[in-house]
UniProtKB/TrEMBL annotation:
Pfam families: NTP_transferase (PF00483)
Record-given protein name: UTP--glucose-1-phosphate uridylyltransferase
Gene it is expressed from: galU
Keywords: Nucleotidyltransferase, Transferase
UniProt KW Transferase keyword: yes
Catalysed reactions, as listed in the record: alpha-D-glucose 1-phosphate + UTP + H(+) = UDP-alpha-D-glucose + diphosphate
Length: 299
């Protein structure tokens, strides 16, 4: 049965410690690390807003106050820029505070992604909602979330984003078993496995950090025991929805073949900065020219 409830809210889990980026993240949330000239979290909020979701809930933890400050007004800074006549910088500073209606809730104990999503239940209520993970940046030229929202509207249940990965890399992701639908690029999920060994993986289709979830996921998460890593895994709850339609399914997958930047790994984070900077009209030509010379000089 098609779920006609509109997707209006976005949930962004942001309670992680960012240990892979220590010592940079000792006092700075990993979500605030810059990607060119904006913190990574701003790209994610902008993506949600571009998809029509202006009610954003960030699930945070200790040490995440800079997230709140970034999306709040900075009156002293604004006034200083106004006095200098720097209208361009002023507009950029104001942009982040005017993007969306941003709310915050603390996760408390770090019990996993599934727990972070469950913490959002009182804010979300009984309507479908989007979940965007901050480590995955989706290029604005290849919009993914609007397509996922459309699939959820037409087919009901929940929708996850999938990419094809090298079979040797499936152990890094949640992995999906699928069957085709009558729609190109959309599959029906029949099973999900969190970070399987290559020989146990049902496919090479990996889940990335974009979800449109039916509110029934909350009831399933409440009953989900800690899984891999001792954490409450969202993948485990989605598996219940996918294999038991009476629990709130179905679950569909959207195959994404666009540009995606992984900022959760140091090397991929650097690649993301290079790629996005190279595509910028104000930075690209000079930066790419320098990059060519730099690579040419490398041994």
């Amino acid at each position: 049965m098609t779920d006609v409830r509109a997707v209006r809210k976005a949930v962004i889990p942001a309670a992680g410690l960012g240990t892979r980026f220590l010592p940079a993240t000792k006092a700075t949330p990993k979500e605030m690390l810059p990607v060119v000239d904006k913190p990574a979290i701003q790209y994610v909020v902008e993506e949600a807003v571009a998809a029509g979701l202006t009610d954003v809930l960030m699930v945070t933890g200790r040490g995440k106050r800079p997230l709140e400050d970034h999306f709040d007004r900075a009156y002293e800074l604004e006034e200083a820029l106004r006095e200098k006549g720097d209208t361009e910088k002023l507009a950029e500073v104001q942009h982040s505070s005017e993007l969306a209606d941003v709310h915050y809730v603390r996760q408390g104990a770090p019990k996993g992604l599934g727990h972070a999503v469950l913490v959002a239940a009182p804010h979300v209520g009984s309507e479908p909602f989007a979940v965007l993970l901050g480590d995955d940046l989706i290029d604005e030229r290849d919009p993914l979330l609007p397509l996922m929202i459309d699939v959820q509207r037409r087919r009901g249940g929940s929708v996850i984003a999938l990419i094809e990965v090298d079979p040797t890399q499936v152990h890094l992701y949640g992995c999906a078993a699928v069957e085709p639908t009558d729609e190109d690029g959309v599959v029906r999920i029949t099973d999900l496995v969190e970070k399987p060994d290559a020989e146990d993986a049902p496919s090479n289709l990996a889940i990335i950090g974009r979800y449109v979830l039916a509110p029934e996921v909350f009831e399933v998460l409440q009953k989900t025991e800690p899984g891999r890593g001792g954490e409450i895994q969202l993948t485990d709850a989605l598996r219940v929805l996918a294999t038991r339609e009476d629990a709130g399914g179905p679950v569909h997958g959207v195959l994404f073949r666009g540009r995606r930047y992984d900022t959760g790994d140091k090397a991929d984070y650097l690649r993301a900065i290079v790629r996005l900077a190279a595509d910028r009209e104000d930075l690209g030509p000079e930066f790419v020219a320098w990059l060519r010379e730099f690579v040419k000089e490398r041994p």
